Fold each of these.
Amino acid sequence: MNIHEYQAKQVLKGFGAPVASGVAITAASEAEAAAKQLPGPLYVVKSQIHAGGRGKGKFKELGADAKGGVRLARTIEEVVANAQDMLGNTLVTAQTGDAGKQVNRLYIEDGADIDKELYLSLLVDRSVGRVAFVVSTEGGMDIEAVAHDTPEKIVTVAIDPATGVTPADAEQIADAYGLTGIGREDGLKLFPILYKAFVEKDMALLEVNPLIVMTDGRLRVLDAKVSFDGNALFRHDDMKALRDISEEDAKEIEASKYDLAYVALDGDIGCMVNGAGLAMATMDIIKLYGKEPANFLDVGGGANKEKVTAAFKIITADPNVKGILVNIFGGIMRCDVIAEGVVAAVRDVGLQVPLVVRLEGTNVELGKKILNESGLAITAADDLDDAAQKIVAAVK
Ligand code: ADP
Ligand code: MG
């Protein structure tokens, strides 16, 4: 689960991290009052969407010369004018895809006098099984280019879970940044704070880009992106309350109601599979035969007819889907239950695109019989290879 920048900053502030003061608004009429709560004379108007790259983003409705999704303002009037210009429009950034995201919320923030922009993130480094800091002196809006062109400018410091951030770890990070004086003191305090927030709140990612050194030498968290580990959200009701479902994929929300593991993707072959491993293999083999999956969908081991029907409806409701591949291995799950679910769903929503079904396992003969006798245009497949080739051919 992702949250907005202003929420992430609120969370980090609770742990003692230095963030600017700011006010979130959802209507331009609130902009003046929001700005008046800040010291000035520099303000920043920041689009709140669940995607990065906002500064360099472009609004669809505004001309190519219009400013991006993060704007400096030097007067309260400018704050108001920018809020009117931005709210309700669609921001396209390197991370949103071409469709962009509608800006329904702005964060009006105190402007900082920036001396340096640094990069910091915390993530779970699976290669060492530890939470790691990833840091670079080259922070700001182009970290992807830094990682690509000059990877030696990115330093990783993995943290031992038994000790947390030791003074030596903090010094190592401060050295990587070349911090001195008061900025170094701020950093030595900040790094353990960020680690604590990450671990206590079960974050999957915490990215501060940029972490800035201000002209007075102090550090400040200027941007913050936080994702939580969905499997641990049950023990963080306070974080769950920060969820903004208007930012999420409608199909994924629908799937979560039925406890289906569903991730929308960009391709055109809809997949219904049981078991995450088989779902991954199915996606791989579709790619192998030259097409892209439209989704990842694991209906789980104990799916009933209702769940299968819901899953099928979610897939068919996606206008990008040009063909559907059902690939089920009936272990705990019985093939006849899947077949009944597929037939019921097709009867319910109709079938506008080719459907290939590969069943294997418990009650497979009964499952095939149900499909064959349904009178529906379903192509049966014998194995994974056969199934992938058939659906790719049908879509092409
Ligand atoms: P994004 O990463 O989505 O582009 P950021 O929050 O990182 O958004 O903002 C982009 C850039 O805008 C920053 O790198 C920084 O230069 C500038 N900026 C953002 N917030 C402030 C602020 N409060 N004061 C001054 N400059 C800011
Ligand atoms: Mg940023």
Amino acid sequence: MERTLAIIKPDGVARGITGEVVKRLEGKDFRIVAMKMIHLSKKQAEGFYAVHQGKPFFESLTDFMSSGPAVVMVLEGEDIIARYRQLMGATNYKEAAEGTIRKDFATDIEKNVVHGSDAPETAAFEMAYFFNHLEIVS
Ligand code: ATP
Ligand code: MG
């Protein structure tokens, strides 16, 4: 069993597609074991995306991520990190495969609706950024 952090980014929440994303998760055996809504501050967004500090899109990305409420979740399942990345689709929605969340809903390389951890180490950091162990059901 593996866990990953998923986020419905502010564009997804603002556009009212939270339910659609959750439906795709539940329909495909991605067990949601923690979930809450949070409006990140600019500082909190910078901390979350610290690995991207110094990149040309960092300022804009952290402005976007702190622009409104987001829904953060912990997902659990076998090979969940890779399976959820597959369900999300490529970072650039123009390159995302048919049937992925980003292909179907993203409008921009930055405003791409969802986030997912990319490795066990980043998943551990990202889950702990939002949830303590009492907030994750077992
Ligand atoms: P995420 O980490 O949000 O799940 P990802 O792993 O597919 O996305 P990363 O390379 O980690 O992609 O980039 C983090 C986020 O930064 C992207 O999801 C996107 O919102 C934004 N981003 C990435 N590349 C660019 C870019 N070239 N221009 C603008 N925004 C970008
Ligand atoms: Mg990433």
